[in-house]
Amino acid sequence: MKLNIISKESGKANANTLFYVKQSVQFSAVLSEEGEKQVDSVLTGIKDGVFEDLEFVEIDDKPTIFVDAAKERGISSLDHLRMAAFRLANKAAQKQIPIVSIMLADAADEQFKAIAHGLHYADYKFDAYKSKKKERFQVTFEIAAGEHVNEFKKIAEDVAVEQKAVTLVKNLVNTPAADLTPAEFVERAKTVAKYTTGLSIKVRDMKQLEKEGFMGHVTVGKGSARPPFMVTLSYNGVGRTGRGSQDHLVIVGKGLCFDTGGLCLKPPKSMPEMISDMTGAATALAAIQAIATLELPIKVSAVLCLAENAIGNQSVLPGDIFTAKNGKTVMVDNTDAEGRLVLSDGLAEAGLIGATHIVDLATLTGAMVRALGYAVAGFFSNDDALALNIINSGEACCEKFWSMPLEEEYADALKDKFADLKNTGSDAGAISAALFLQEFVPEDTAWAHLDIAGTAFVDKKWKYTDYGATGFGAQTLIELARRMAAGSLAESEYKSV
Asked: Which of 52, 234, 346, 495 is most buried (most C-beta within 10 Å)?
């Protein structure tokens, strides 16, 4: 897919596009009087069920695709535009239309950004393991932007960076665990750091983790023949630009490259999707790559907590107790509640490197999947401003987040008879997990925990994903950093789209 942003139609397009909502055409459409009558007739036919979404008809002697910009249920107006553009791109590729014109002179910046995202989403496919690969027909979308050419070109550049991040998440998550071990994940992170200006990397292996007291990784990873690693990536946008936010955002990602459940073995039916248990780390890596590429004026770090929860002769036993990095002792009540153990190290590392704000994200609990399903991610926060910023950033990126309560009434269930804590509570699984993580959040640090267990990976078609990784969360983290950076800049100096 290629975007060609120009002020007005070139006359080279093989088809035009009209977005519509009910009986109304959206954005600008330069039509003859007869063309307007033809459009009214088609829209009436769609209303009456004669025609349908993506109807392909001649308007003013030009093949025209009618795209419903309000087809789905329960999504925002911007997400409607994403989905409309996504369907349009698939239709154009299927019909092998070389150049498709979209008239967007009357579109707002955020509307064009939504459409550009939708067009990009349609290009993704994961066929690395297919013996026969089918090439997708490449369509050029000619955007008639009127007076918005320069703004739209900048937005298109940003969208390309954000979509590169989404693609990175999807490719990492969709890769089988045998090919994406913790060590291989480290190599992928090193490659990102090498080719991203301003990004540095620090890697701790099993020996260093044990020496420095990051025992969450050691406890979880010691049963596997593939040892754990903790990776810290750093970007200082303030140091590069000499201006910007004084905040230090640290993104902590759960990176279980595969999770068998350990000795508390998962049922076989639950196993295949466990390739997605490293989505948090994949998302953190992709987000910081994009933030650095966009040169956002803010200091951001990403901590990737990489391990494999397997069964071996060194596996952690239920009832074992270890001392976490912050000095608290933890009894492992359930070896399948391992994500929170490696995250305890990531949260400690965030404190050591001076985080003012921490966002951890993890495919953490089945309880969250049961509560909110595949379309909404629940999150917990100790800071109202950060929580609101996450919700607003998500809305701008068409990703839904729901604030959940850090209900202290359930905290006592995490107390253990011999250790300070145990890694499971007796009730409210998602809340108990968040309360456990809160025990390792550095004092006086704004923190949010995003439980993306339901939204990270789907086994049925959802929005832009037929099956597998969704890339959910990457854009929200990028937008969060953008908004945090903009908080200390004059409006004339920085504009968020």
From this structure: 346
